Amino acid sequence: MALDAVRAALPPHAKDLSLALGSLTRHGELTEQQLWGTLLACAEATRCAPLLRETEAEARKHLTEDAHRAARTAAALMAMTNVFYRARHLLDDPEYDALPAGLRMNALRDPGVDRVDFELWSLAVSAVGGCGRCLTSHERALRQAGVRRETVQDAIRVASVLSGVAATLDAEAALAGSAPA
Fold it and tell me: Which cysteines are joined by disulfide bonds (predicted)?
């Protein structure tokens, strides 16, 4: 499994991250498509090249081409919207909410997979991106669709583990004097 290569690359002080990464694919609330789409979208959101390469290689074995594309689409769209809506929120001026966003988000109309899966991936990427407005919006959509809190939390758990793994791998590359691969 490609994620084993990621675990092997983690330094000894990140043992808890290694254990957490190892447990992500063994149990949880997410379906296989939801899990691997979340892993792929979050790996892309972390911008950590070694993590993305290994995760993407493994995700291809578990996702249809449509689901693979949709997970990457969620990562791309949330990279844009997380910045936009986080900035609007941080400006703390409600008049900005009355202005049109002017962002192209056609993929949201038909993401190519079940809407719940796309919302889970968008939520998880928004957790990596740190956008409270996006998290709230996606969580509400998921809860309205009947998704359990445990499932929402599982997607956030995947995001948090991958974020920690990416930060650690990037720190190791910096300490070794090389740019992240």
Answer: 131-134
